[in-house]
Amino acid sequence: MKKHNIKYNLIMVIAILAVIFTACNKDDEYDQPNSFSDVGWYIAYEQSPWPDTLLTNKDDYLTFSDLSQNAISHKWEIESGNFFLEGPIQRLDSIFDDKIIGSGSSEDKTVSVLFKNSGYNHVRLFNIFKDSVTFRGPTEEDNISAVKVGENWVIDKTFVVDVYDTIVPTIRIERSNGEILNHTSTDTIYVEAGDAINVFDLTETGRPDDWNWNIGGSTSTEKDATLVLKKLGAFNGTLTLRRTGQNIPGDYEQYKIPAPFKVIPSSQPFRLTGNVYELEDQTIVVPFNGEFAPFIDHESYFTVTVNGGANPVTISNVSTDPNDATLLWITLNETIYRSDNITVSYDGNGTFKSTDTREPEAFTDAPVTMHNYNYINSDVMASFEEAGTGWEERGGPTSIEYITTAPSGEPIPDGNYILKIVSSGGGQGAILKDFGSFEPGVDYKLSYWVYAEPGSANSCRADFLVGNNDAFNFWQSLNPGPAGWQAGAAPGAFGEWRKIDNKIINVDNANDHSIFFRPNGAGTYYFDNIYIEKVDVRP
């Protein structure tokens, strides 16, 4: 992170220039120049210009050089617990305690400070001059002028250094019922196959920002996570912590959980758990609460029903996910569509079992959640999560902001954030540009949720733009009528969330698409869960 040799190179350049200047003087007789005062400093730090707060690791150092001229007095001051080091310091040095030469204050022009205290530290430069001086920063706002004290002028500059400590992992592990497990002993923790344990990172020292849990092949990159242990056997667990943020000192620590884990056969029934769902390639996924042992030829024990039997289908194969044996994969001989209503049943007569010898329970008419894809393929843009991004004000004096509190205490339709638009007139609103590309000749559906505060204009327009042209304009009355929210609906009450659906027909494959929400007058409006999906209807 540091460029320790730069200060020495700078001092040498100044010295060489002084020699050249003297040697080139035509007069043999030396004329003493007029004395002048100036202030400057240099920090061996990789970022330029230097940030307001410098960053380094605990037990590492930074080098500060005072380049001022003709100061009456000069000193560096550091806080108790930090130390000055003796140079030279080699680039590959990593242990510095044997180079400590003092603490408190130093009158050396260049000092290397070893930071032993974590958190915010301060390095003070205190210089006194007989003349007024000014430090010239990269901008006028960064300039620092001396303050007159008595007959002299004082520069009193404090550098702030945020020192990052070494990561020291601290964790807690619980069963799903909240029972805290003693993970620091070497006693075995027994877990039934398919059961979950909750893990929590409680680390306070070192400020990690990246997590990786692994117990028995069950993994998570969340700070706090729920791990389902599926494989039988004995396992050791780990938590790998990293500090990886931009421009901050990195660190890495792997904590090996002392207590071993043993996953034993479950006492619970082997059954369907969670939702059945469709993959993009039309595979139907059926999740169970344990792993299946290898099997073949079980297609006849399952039934897939489409639209109540109106569209017969046959099963071509039943297998397990090659990466997760708790998931059954069902493939069909016929095409299915997102508009279909599909259910799956198992008659209970198969001979396959779990890896811990349990027989799967029968189930009937489990609904299938059909695969979908939002062409606004970012929760930050579509649901404004993490305070949103990409949306801009457009059309005049209007304001947009991302908020976490819905109007009148109403629940937020999706996620934790919504978009708020305050419009002072028609044609104003918020626009999202360049969010994706589309397949030519294909129909899509634009849907979103909107809430209008009472007193707002009673219509809103959603424009789907290609380039700068209005490709599709959708006017929506914000008054619910017999046919829902649509133009010409009868007057009704505001103050509730409404979902709007519009069809976009035969979009070309240009990449410069935009969505523009523009109320038809003054008012306050809230939007959430913007969704563009391909129309996939059974012919």
From TrEMBL:
It comes from the Bacteria. The keyword Repeat does not apply. GO terms for molecular function: hydrolase activity, acting on glycosyl bonds. InterPro entries: CenC_carb-bd, Galactose-bd-like_sf. Keywords: Hydrolase, Signal. The keyword Hydrolase applies. Residues 382-471 form the CBM-cenC domain. Transmembrane segments: none annotated. PROSITE patterns: PROKAR_LIPOPROTEIN (PS51257). Pfam families: CBM_4_9. Residues 1-25 form the signal peptide. This is CBM-cenC domain-containing protein.
